[in-house]
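PROTEIN–LIGAND DATA SHEET

This sheet pairs a single protein chain with one bound small molecule, magnesium ion, given as SMILES. Inputs appear in the order they were entered. The predicted three-dimensional arrangement of chain and ligand is reported afterwards as a token string under its own label.
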Amino acid sequence: MFFNYFLQRIRDILKILSAHHPEIISFVSQILFMLEKEKIQFERTVIVGIITQKQDEEKLTEYLDELEFLTFTAGGEVVKRFFQKMERPNPKTFLGTGKMEEINLYVKEHSISTVIFDDELSPSQQKNITKILDCKVLDRTNLILDIFAQRAETSYARTQVELAQCQYLLPRLSGMWTHLERQKGGIGMRGPGETEIETDRRIVRDRIALLKDKIKVIDKQMSVQRGNRGAMVRVALVGYTNVGKSTLMNVISKSDVFVENKLFATLDTTVRKVVIKNLPFLLSDTVGFIRKLPTQLVDSFKSTLDEVREADLLLHVVDISHPDFEDHIESVNQTLLDIKSNDKPTIMVFNKIDAYKHLTIDEDDLITEKTRRHYTLDEWKDTWMSNVGPENALFISAVNKENFEAFRERVYEAVREIHITRFPYNKFLYPDYKDAVEKGDDAE
Ligand SMILES: Nc1nc2c(ncn2[C@@H]2O[C@H](COP(=O)(O)OP(=O)(O)OP(=O)(O)O)[C@@H](O)[C@H]2O)c(=O)[nH]1
Ligand SMILES: [Mg+2]
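PREDICTION REPORTED AS:
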């Protein structure tokens, strides 16, 4: 009890420190990591991926890095990575028989409790692999669903996640690891698995119907709520998970949305009225996207994503300090396309410029070829400004408020443009940003 309180205080102090001194963020994250590690018993986990023609070793490393971060978020510690080169996954056991045996031996010798595959396993693959390995077998989808289950706080979010989990489990019921350590819980065991699932498909089908009804009722309420918000311009923060959407929401609206250096810190949507100069608009912060976001989640998070669907303007936040940020942009665009929100006016907000580092090539090195990893921040600015237009690519740091004034100005101008097309008679109320009057307090 006392230890928890003590831990929380240290965490608070470290967070305040890192907000004011961004240069110590990585050091602080390490300390936080160590403190968390002290407290939580991490599950010993092995992660698995494959190298194919479409996915070279470098890509796989990036994907496994992300899978490791997901595993950590779910409460697991990655002890080892396994991978195999193959043309396509084995339809029966995903990897080849020899490789599976190697993993099996490792699992036994190192008391591994969970094996996580980076790709989605088919129900029959999962069944076969579970027969070979004497531990929990999860795939990426299952892991993401588990994190959502762990993080869902409101009854609405919990219902949405449970529906997604039930839909994922239904075709897999017979081959599940339900016989294993069900009582122990942990990764992949949270949510509906702990109670109703067991082996009866009928129960799950009934449960799905019930959850769908429950969601329908809430959807209706949410839609009425959204309707009641009047005709104010609606802006939505979208982006990959952990890019700093909530941090940006907090600095722009002076609110206190939960921020954490883990994936999917935010599941529920927060909407705030923000006033820049004298111009009011609604800003929403919502769930982050990820590569291969499970389709079950996209479907059941319909109402949460409606916030994006009904927005007038999107602020697509990107973590430019992440080596794969271009892939992230593509994943986000894909999800926006899936939810039919890809043609909205969008401003690209490249965040975390304080943490951006690029590779360098020595002057006497004539062999290394220049890649995108060598781009300086200015080169990225040029690239993106010519890609999407100079007014639609902003480079900022939400933590130390670098370029924050330019960001506010651009958002003001974009909101104003939408506002005056909607209310032409209001035009005189909102002059150019520099002529507009600051209204004491920004947030209301
Ligand atoms: N260095 C640096 N770190 C930042 C910046 N903005 C946010 N962060 C950090 O990035 C991490 C994630 O921030 P969040 O605001 O929770 O990100 P999010 O996009 O809301 O994440 P999800 O809700 O998980 O999708 C936190 O540790 C922040 O402190 C920035 O400008 N620079
Ligand atoms: Mg967030």
